[in-house]
Design goal:
Helix content: 25-40%
Structural class: alpha+beta
Distance between the termini: 63 Å
Number of helices: 15
CATH superfamily of the largest domain: Glycosidases
CATH class of the largest domain: Alpha Beta
Largest sheet: 10 strands, antiparallel
Radius of gyration: 27 Å
Strand order of the largest sheet: 20-21-22-23-24-27-28-37-34-35
CATH architecture of the largest domain: Alpha-Beta Barrel
């Protein structure tokens, strides 16, 4: 009998996950928005300050973005990429309406200049090519939506440019694993003046162009919120050596520049070899031959820095010289670019680039170069499988709420204390099942507690919800796990519900000492293409307590908040503001308890959340539950209208996983299915609200939920709802 019981138990353990998964789907309901834009009931178009630019240019003021009249601003935006900025006028009107209704006050136009010039030169723009672009910008402007330029992701050269390029045939023939960078100035532009001139000339010509709808040159348009010199590129970029192998003329140019730099420092080869301790100079490379190669790959500099830390020694001199030279070349390019666009009148924020250069030495030099010319901007992605399209196979199904500072949130370790910080590309990648956690983490902890200044989700490809979760590939910005949360999150950001925290960690770095071989910053980055895992030199749980910054200083010093035990108790970190609490118990969750927004994100284990006058408890394993005031000047205590948003997991119809949900077996198809959220809600106010059930676009359904014993039980399996309107 004992053997039979054991056998039965074993067989049951095999079928239980399948059984539970089958049961798991029974109450899931179809996502059916009734219209392409949000209803006026919950839309945010009247929250946007119209027209964009009416407060003057966006400016950098310390670590903040402000308008010329002193009004502070934060951008909650999205990316419009490739040919989208040149859409037809009728589409522009639809897009502007869609974006404003969902509460976006900014767009990042991304890699949009390929094919947008006269077709002969790579730098000459024409009115006929730009008429649609001009129309879209004016439509956005009128809706209160600002636009920034991330226009160059490898500037693609044309034959008419050949007389201006040192080695056109070599450059035009370059090929990458990423075809969109074939035949571009990418990587080489950071030191090659001829290619720099092309990138700068294109940008200057764009800024000189007059939009006939506004009557303004773009250089004079205060709705232009930033200019980025180059997307995901720097002189330490990991792929630069691939380009140099295909362009021997530019490799020789780089070696000549470096050799001349070394001559200026050491005068003779004997002094050079002595300083380098006879290391780092391969046979055949000489000062006289001007062929010493600086190895511009952040992997080398990261490894050498980490080895120095491990061996408790200074970084080797040949590594320091190579890094210092490359940093100076990067800074020369940025200064040249900055001067050109300032000289024609543009006075808004500048972004050097948005790409991290590994860890340690190259990272710090690259970060400093970016900070020297403008604001800091970075990218990161989290979870999901391989490639850019959804496909069956293994994937990362972990959750960021399980570990404070992991995934997207860890990107904030690159925030510099006296510069604004932007997160201009991010997404939790499908088929990760917990992707609904991503936008609340960015909005609440990034834009709120850390004081980030801009967010641009990547990317919005259609002006409506997608029919499946993979529209646009793995970047599912138009999934309900993203867009459906924005009516609450955008209000929270614009109203300033979440207070910026006190600085709890400040890593002071003396760059001069770093260039002399010191290793003050012990942080690492593990990178899988766009996805980066950043580990800090301090307990990352502190990122849930308050602001974390890096300061370029006269000293190397780690300043950390004292008495942290007052905030960190029993695996729970409370914020210095008293509004946020992040628990690493179980699979993790955090709560929001501000005047205007209250809520919960993550795995609650059915724990009752008491958030001031609001109490929430859910039976779901995972959920995002947000209660926010719909009024600009009123909080939960006195608001007449509030929006309750409930989102959990989302998947395609017929989507199948293996038993432990680490492998996607079948992609599935339309329609999208939503996991119902069941919760108990209580509000301690003298009056009792009416709770109306809204449809998936935010329209009233004329159905309501009645109070029972002083609380409401809202069951998504019955209501088929994600939105509820509370009216007093």
């Amino acid at each position: 009998m004992r053997h039979i019981i054991c056998l039965f138990s074993f067989l049951f353990s095999l079928i239980t996950p399948v059984f539970l998964f089958a049961q798991d789907k029974t109450n899931w309901f179809e996502f059916r928005p009734t219209q392409e834009i949000l209803s006026s009931e919950i839309a945010l178009d009247n929250w946007l300050d119209k027209p964009a630019g009416n407060h003057g240019f966006v400016l950098m003021k310390g670590d903040q973005l402000v308008f010329e009249d002193g009004t502070p601003v934060k951008f909650w935006g999205t990316n419009l990429a490739s040919r989208l900025p040149f859409m037809k006028p009728e589409e522009s009107t639809k897009w502007a309406d869609f974006l404003s209704r969902f509460g976006f006050n900014g767009v990042r136009f991304h890699k949009f200049t390929w094919g947008a010039t006269d077709g002969i030169h790579s730098t000459v723009i024409t009115d006929d090519k730009w008429k649609n672009f001009d129309f879209l910008c004016n439509e956005l402007r009128n809706k209160g939506i600002y636009y920034g330029w991330s226009h160059i992701y490898g500037h693609r050269v044309m034959k008419a440019d050949s007389s201006r390029i040192v080695a056109y045939s070599e450059l035009a023939a370059t090929k990458f694993p990423w075809s969109h960078l074939n035949g571009t100035t990418s990587a080489l532009v950071n030191f090659a003046e001829d290619l720099q001139n092309l990138n700068i000339e294109l940008t200057v010509n764009m800024l000189k162009h007059i939009n006939p709808h506004t009557g303004l040159r773009y250089a004079d348009d205060p709705a232009l919120s930033f200019i980025e010199f180059q997307n995901e590129d720097n002189i330490f970029w990991g792929a630069i050596e691939t380009t140099l192998k295909q362009t021997p003329t530019y490799r020789a140019m780089l070696c000549r520049k470096f050799s001349q730099w070394l001559k200026g420092k050491y005068k003779t080869e004997a002094e050079l070899k002595n300083a380098w301790n006879n290391e780092g100079l391969p046979e055949g490379e000489t000062l006289e031959g001007e062929n010493i190669y600086p190895q511009p790959n952040h992997g080398l500099f990261s490894w050498e820095y980490e080895q120095a830390v491990k061996e408790k020694r200074p970084v080797k001199q040949n590594i320091l010289d190579k890094a210092d030279f490359l940093y100076e070349e990067q800074l020369k390019f940025y200064r040249k670019f900055e001067t050109a666009i300032r000289n024609i009148g543009y006075k808004g924020p500048i972004v050097g680039s948005c790409w991290q250069a590994g860890t340690g030495l190259a990272h710090l030099l690259n970060l400093h170069a970016d900070a020297t010319v403008g604001m800091i901007d970075r990218h990161n992605y989290f979870g999901g499988g391989k490639g850019h399209q959804l496909a069956p196979g293994k994937f990362d199904n972990s959750a960021m709420v399980s570990k404070i500072g992991s995934g997207l949130y860890g990107t904030g370790l690159q925030q510099v204390s006296d510069r604004p910080f932007a997160f201009s590309e991010w997404m939790s990648l499908i088929p990760n099942e917990w992707s609904a956690e991503s936008s609340p983490i960015v909005a609440v902890y990034g834009m709120g507690l850390q004081g980030w200044d801009a967010s641009y989700v990547f990317a919005t490809d259609i002006p409506r919800y997608s029919s499946t979760i993979q529209s646009g590939g793995i970047y599912n910005a138009t999934s309900p796990t993203q867009m459906a949360l924005y009516p609450a999150l955008a209000r929270m950001i614009y109203r300033g519900d979440i207070t910026e925290g006190k600085t709890v960690v400040n890593r002071k770095i003396n760059l001069n000492s770093v260039l002399k071989g010191e290793t003050p910053l012990h942080e690492t980055v593990k990178q899988d293409f766009d996805r980066k895992v950043i580990e800090g030199s301090f307990p990352l749980q502190m990122m849930a307590a308050g602001k974390v910054a890096l300061t370029f200083s006269e000293e190397n010093k780690m300043e950390m908040m004292e008495n942290l035990s007052l905030l960190w108790k029993d695996s729970v970190m409370n914020s210095t503001t008293g509004q946020l609490s992040w628990s690493e118990k179980g699979k993790g969750f955090f709560t929001i308890n501000s005047a205007g927004t209250k809520g919960f994100v993550g795995f609650s284990n059915r724990q009752k959340m008491e958030l001031g006058e609001v109490t929430i408890q859910t039976e779901n394993e995972f959920a995002v539950i947000l209660l926010t005031s719909l009024e600009k000047d009123k909080g939960i205590k006195d608001s007449h209208k509030m929006l309750l948003t409930t989102i959990a997991r989302v998947r395609n119809s017929g989507m199948k996983f293996n038993n432990d949900h680490t492998e996607l077996l079948e992609i599935g198809k339309s329609p999208i299915l939503l996991e119902p959220v069941k919760l108990t809600l209580a509000i301690n106010r003298s009056a009792k609200p009416k709770i109306n059930i809204l449809d998936h676009s935010g329209n009233r359904t004329l159905k309501s939920v009645e109070q029972l014993d002083g609380k409401w039980i809202l069951d998504g399996a019955d209501t088929k709802a994600i939105y509820y309107l509370l009216e007093y």
